Each structure stands twice: as C-alpha cells, then as structure tokens.
C-alpha cells in the first residue's frame, strides 16, 4: 500500500503554491487593458457631459440634443463591449472527444501513423473536413478533442475555441463563434461614439484653440477630448474595416494568415458562400437584429458549409437532388444552405474518403 507522508504532501503544496500565485497574478494583469478602456470611457463621459454640455454649451436645445445623441451611442457601445467581454467562448461538444476505447489505444500507441489511423476512424463519423498542413487530423492534446473545423486552441483561455478569430487583450476574452458579432458591433459603435464626440466638440475645440472662449477648467478637457477621440477613431476604424472585410470573405483572422487545409489542399476561400451569405452567417438572416448585440449568428459553431471544388456534374446533380434542389438542364446550380446541409456534407465526405474529391461551388471569388 502506497502511503504518502505528510512531509511529502507539504513539499508538494509548497511547489504548487508559486505556480498558483503566478497564475492568479497573470489573470489579474489580463484585466489591465479592460480597466484602461473603462477609465478612458469614464473620463470621456465626464468631459463631455459635465465640462462640455453643462459648463460650456450655452444653448439648452443644443445641450439636450447633444446629450441624447451621445447617450444613445454610448449605450450601444457599452452594451456591445461588455457582451464581448462576458460571452464565454464556445468549446467543442463531447461528441468530439475520443471514445474511451479509442482514447486508451491512442494513449498507449507511440507510432504517429497508427495514432492518425485511430483519429481518422473516429473523425469519419464527425463533420470534420479541415486538416493540418501535413494532411493529418487536427487533434488537441491539451483538451483531448478532435478539433472541429475552424476551431483552435487558445493558450491564454486554456481551451479550444469554436471558430476562433483571435484572443483580444482589450476585452480579455477570446473572440470566436459565441461573440464575434458582438466584437464587430463593439468596433462599429466605438467608432461612431468617437465620431459623435469629434463632430460635436470640434466647434468648441476651435473656439478654445483660437481663444474665442475664456480660459476655464473646461478648456483642457475639451481639447484633450477631441484629440483622444480622433486618435481612437483612426485606430478603431482601421480594425473595423479589416474585420468587415473578413466578414465579407467569411474568414477569421487566423484563416487570413494561414489558409484552411482541406482534403484537396489549402483554400483561402474554402468557407466563402458569397458576400450576402457570409454576412448572414455572422449577423443572422433577420436584419432587424443586426444592430443589436444579441446572438443571431447561424449554425452551431461545430460545422460549416464549405465552398468545395472539382465536382463531377453528375455527382453534383445527385447531391443537389438529395437535398431537394433540381438544377435546370445545362446548368450547375450552387448548393444552397438549408436544413439539410449536414446531409450534403456527409455525402461529400464519403466521396473524399473513397478517393474522390466531391465539392459544391457556392460562388467563385478571386
């Protein structure tokens, strides 16, 4: 019987204490950028509402109209920002974990090729179509799951994140399937918040700069408020433009730098379904929800319709007919995503496993 001595337990506890303390310090430091953003926003609120609207603007009608517009954009900005922060990153479901028998075989096996055979056997029943650069099944040893398409492991969050875009220090969270819409809205409303400040402050900025207004304590706040808002607007607008481009192309930041690899090789447009469908995948099909930070993205984050290539016309007609689509004679219609998307994907996978690459082209892109 193996009995651990009390002294050994104490020694083990002392060894674990520093690592635990360092981890707690790291987690606390991760909130510093978020604290900085909130302090800047809090100061901008004071400078705008008190120093500008209360002490500087003489006209009540102008003051009230400025305050109403300012608070509308501030509310949307704060709402989308905190939704991005507090939305827990979505991870793979238990379906992507190895069954107990296969897991034991995988852990006992030392040969990489045999391990891959075990993973391929399990992945055959999963909607997994992307591979590593070497063509292997994407498996996370830390989380012990087969990675769904577009899923990546975040070392900061210490988990695999569905449709991971990047880890953002300014929200202290991973941006992925569960909160990507909120993140884009956060950038959009942050830009509009800065625009509102610049547009309404500029005339008083000029008056203070040209000494048309008397020297008061509000001068510093208004001058600095305009500069800060302008600088933030320029930096946020560039980031917003980039992410709107990614939405239109249906790519993540990771995929923009490293194209996803399919059975027939890398394809940077592999998930692109055309601009309108790409936008709908992030923001949803109902435009009335687009402006609000409420979840309306399509899908479950585990599987995605792919823009596949090199399809045999007869196989295309068969796949489309099985999904309720009948292409006209002499035409090759695109596969339209619907309730039976999974069936189309499964058909494609069976053909790929059989040695043929079956694919459906949604829309050709440069």
From TrEMBL:
GO terms for cellular component: membrane. It comes from the Eukaryota. Keywords: Acyltransferase, Membrane, Transferase, Transmembrane, Transmembrane helix. The keyword Transferase applies. Residues 320-339 are annotated as: Disordered. One of its GO terms (molecular function) is protein-cysteine S-palmitoyltransferase activity. The chain crosses the membrane at residues 28-48, 64-82, 182-206, 218-242. It is a multi-pass membrane protein. It is found in: Membrane. It catalyses: L-cysteinyl-[protein] + hexadecanoyl-CoA = S-hexadecanoyl-L-cysteinyl-[protein] + CoA. Its EC number is 2.3.1.225. Residues 138-257 form the Palmitoyltransferase DHHC domain. Belongs to the DHHC palmitoyltransferase family. The DHHC domain is required for palmitoyltransferase activity. This is Palmitoyltransferase. The lineage of its organism: Eukaryota, Metazoa, Chordata, Craniata, Vertebrata.
């Amino acid at each position: 019987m193996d009995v651990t001595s009390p002294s050994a337990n104490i020694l083990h506890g002392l060894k674990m204490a520093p690592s635990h303390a360092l981890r707690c310090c790291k987690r606390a430091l991760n909130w510093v950028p978020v604290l900085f953003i909130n302090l800047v926003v809090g100061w901008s609120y004071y400078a705008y509402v008190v120093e500008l609207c209360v002490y500087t603007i003489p006209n009540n009608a102008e003051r009230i109209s400025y305050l109403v517009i300012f608070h509308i954009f501030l509310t949307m900005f704060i709402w989308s920002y905190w939704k991005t922060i507090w939305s827990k990153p979505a991870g793979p479901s238990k379906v992507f974990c190895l069954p107990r028998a296969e897991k034991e075989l995988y852990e006992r096996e030392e040969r990489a090729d045999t391990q891959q055979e075990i993973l391929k056997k399990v992945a055959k029943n999963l909607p997994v179509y992307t591979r590593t650069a070497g063509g292997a099944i994407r498996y996370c040893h830390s989380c012990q799951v087969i990675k769904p398409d577009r899923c990546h492991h975040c070392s900061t969050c210490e988990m695999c994140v569905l449709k991971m875009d990047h880890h953002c220090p300014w929200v202290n969270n991973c941006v992925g399937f569960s909160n990507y819409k909120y993140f884009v809205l956060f950038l959009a409303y942050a830009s509009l918040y800065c625009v509102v400040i610049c547009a309404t402050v500029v005339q008083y900025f000029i008056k203070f700069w040209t000494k048309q207004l008397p020297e008061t304590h509000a001068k510093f706040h208004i001058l600095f408020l305009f500069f800060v808002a302008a600088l933030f607007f320029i930096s946020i607008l560039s980031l917003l433009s980039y992410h709107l481009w990614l939405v239109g192309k249906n790519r993540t930041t990771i995929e923009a730098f490293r194209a996803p690899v399919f059975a027939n090789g890398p394809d940077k447009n592999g998930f692109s379904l055309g601009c309108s469908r790409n936008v709908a995948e992030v923001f949803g099909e109902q435009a009335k929800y687009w402006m609000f930070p409420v979840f309306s993205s399509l899908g479950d984050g585990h599987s995605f319709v792919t823009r596949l290539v090199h399809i045999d016309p007869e196989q295309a007609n068969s796949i489309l007919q099985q999904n309720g689509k009948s292409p006209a004679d002499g035409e090759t219609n695109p596969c339209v995503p619907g309730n039976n998307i999974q069936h189309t994907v499964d058909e494609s996978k069976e053909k790929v496993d059989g040695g043929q690459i079956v694919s459906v082209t949604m829309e050709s892109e440069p």
